[in-house]
Design goal:
single chain, 15 helices, 73% helix
């Protein structure tokens, strides 16, 4: 399958009712072709070629590498935040990496896909690849990369193994909540606020009750609630993307 094959769906949008409402001298099909040519003319790099081989879809690979929260600037910012958490942990003994990692991942997940943050959002609606598949691939890629950064930061900070892996569960819950709110509201900012707000409330509540923040990510009593939130929010996000592509 080629890039042009996966863009073949654009005719469905241009031939719909919207075209009847356009001036007769405006050819939306030519407009979409021009947009497609501009977006897809860039030659794929090594990462995109590898992603294309893994997903067996050049269009899906292009959608993944153009994820807003996978761009170099965002990755550098995430790494800097986790590096600051590592230094703070080494200096104070408080596991700041475990506190920062879920928040960083939640922000990245919220901005993984959707109108207003993705330059290729409208164009992606005309792709042969489903919205759900694009969303799934992007979310998994963002989560995996942030998990890797967090694990590296935890290892560098020298915290115990229980804490190093303990924040992966709340990280999953925060990420699922962020993408659920972002897809339902069609607003990455709303998803970001929900994810960060819920995590901040959780940490502050536990800290106030116990005088320590570590139970927020190493308490076995919270594993099931975190997993329940993750599963429920993932189901909401899946349901929210059920709308047929090309509709709003």
């Amino acid at each position: 399958m080629t890039y042009s094959d996966e863009m073949a769906g654009h005719g469905e949008i241009s031939s719909g009712s919207g075209r009847d409402e356009c001036p007769p001298d405006v050819d939306l099909e030519r407009v979409w072709l021009a947009i497609a040519a501009d977006v897809w003319r860039r030659q794929p790099g090594p990462v995109e070629r590898l992603a294309g081989q893994l997903t067996r879809s050049p269009g899906l690979a292009r959608a993944m590498v153009t994820t807003p929260s996978l761009l170099l600037g965002w990755l550098i910012a995430s790494a800097i935040i986790l590096a600051a958490g590592t230094l703070a942990t080494l200096g104070t003994g408080t596991p700041y990496v475990a506190l920062f990692a879920p928040a960083v991942a939640g922000a990245g997940i919220a901005y993984a896909y959707g109108p207003g943050v993705d330059p290729a959002w409208e164009l992606s609606l005309s792709m042969a690849v489903s919205d759900r598949m694009v969303l799934l691939v992007r979310v998994l890629a963002v989560f995996a990369l942030n998990a890797a950064l967090g694990l590296a930061a935890s290892a560098a900070s020298g915290v115990v193994a229980a804490i190093t892996f303990g924040w992966l569960v709340p990280m999953t819950a925060v990420s699922a909540l962020a993408i659920a709110v972002a897809t339902v509201t069609r607003s990455a900012n709303a998803g970001l606020a929900a994810g960060l707000g819920a995590w901040a409330i959780t940490v502050l509540s536990i800290s106030t009750a116990s005088g320590d923040v570590t139970p927020a990510f190493d308490s076995s009593a919270l594993v099931l609630p975190y997993l329940a939130v993750a599963v429920g929010c993932a189901a909401i996000a899946w349901f929210a993307t059920r709308i047929p592509r090309g509709t709003s």
